[in-house]
């Protein structure tokens, strides 16, 4: 159905005899902002690669629209001598108007005037936004991101999530994102998937049962959304506890 951007049914991925994903089924509505969480080795990045056709799989995957992909930070050799212009223009390199299109998207992500800089001199947050610009320059309907905030400071993360929220509001773009930042996922995303080989939960962030999250992460401090604040799951519930203030004090 066209009101779904992504439809997945009974997805399975194996590497040799090793089962990575088993019986994964879900649908993502147009305009949803979905965060995928799970422990290391849960198959999160494998799921992303299956969705965009980078690895073989069994099952049914339907993508309704053009996809923009932002891989993990470490997937690109930043010592390669390439300018931001040439890095971002890759999806539209055959377009005669590529420079004006790249300039527009660089300004949109806060990198106006960065086109001639080398990618290797960018900070983690700047590179993250350049990678987002490359995904956006072809005007996708769906953004798929694999741990895009890895190696980025808290201020950079906050700005990045703000950009994603603006894209949904302005363009009704659909976003599917893998992240280890559980607190930010529950604050910013409309929906969350809890993955560990298979889906343990999938639904609106405000309705996810914390016991299901515990099943895949174990017993440790989790942060759940409640009236725009986060409550500590262990050691009592402080209604005034704010996740961002906690991070600032820790950082």
TrEMBL record:
Domain of life: Bacteria
Signal peptide (from-to): none
Classification via Pfam families: ABC_tran (PF00005)
Domain ABC transporter: 6-222
CDD domains named among the record's database cross-references: ABC_Metallic_Cations
One GO MF term attached to the UniProt entry: ATP binding
SUPFAM superfamilies listed in its UniProt record: P-loop containing nucleoside triphosphate hydrolases
Keywords, comma-separated and alphabetical: ATP-binding, Nucleotide-binding, Transport
Protein name: ABC transporter related
């Amino acid at each position: 159905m066209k009101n779904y951007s992504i439809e997945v049914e009974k997805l399975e991925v194996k590497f040799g005899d090793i089962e990575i994903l088993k019986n994964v089924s879900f649908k993502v509505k147009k305009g949803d902002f979905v965060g995928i969480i799970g422990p290391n080795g849960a198959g999160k990045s494998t799921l992303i690669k299956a969705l965009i056709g980078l690895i073989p799989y069994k099952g049914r995957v339907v993508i309704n629209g053009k996809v923009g992909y932002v891989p993990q930070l470490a997937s690109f050799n930043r010592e390669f001598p390439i300018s931001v212009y040439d890095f971002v223009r890759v999806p539209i390199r055959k377009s005669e108007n590529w420079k004006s299109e790249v300039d527009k998207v660089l300004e949109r992500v806060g990198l106006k005037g960065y086109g001639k800089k080398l990618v290797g001199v960018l900070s983690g947050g700047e590179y993250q936004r350049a990678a987002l610009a490359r995904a956006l320059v072809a005007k996708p309907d769906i953004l798929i991101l694999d741990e895009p905030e890895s190696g980025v400071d808290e201020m950079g993360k906050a700005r990045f999530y703000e950009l994603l929220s603006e894209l949904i509001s302005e363009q009704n773009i659909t976003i599917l994102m893998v992240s280890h930042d559980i607190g930010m996922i529950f604050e910013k995303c409309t929906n969350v998937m809890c993955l560990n080989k298979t889906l343990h939960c999938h639904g609106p962030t405000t309705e996810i049962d914390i016991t299901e999250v515990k099943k895949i992460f174990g017993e440790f401090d989790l942060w759940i959304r409640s009236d725009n604040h986060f409550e500590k799951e262990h050691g009592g519930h402080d209604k005034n506890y704010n996740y961002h203030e906690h991070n600032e004090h820790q950082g």
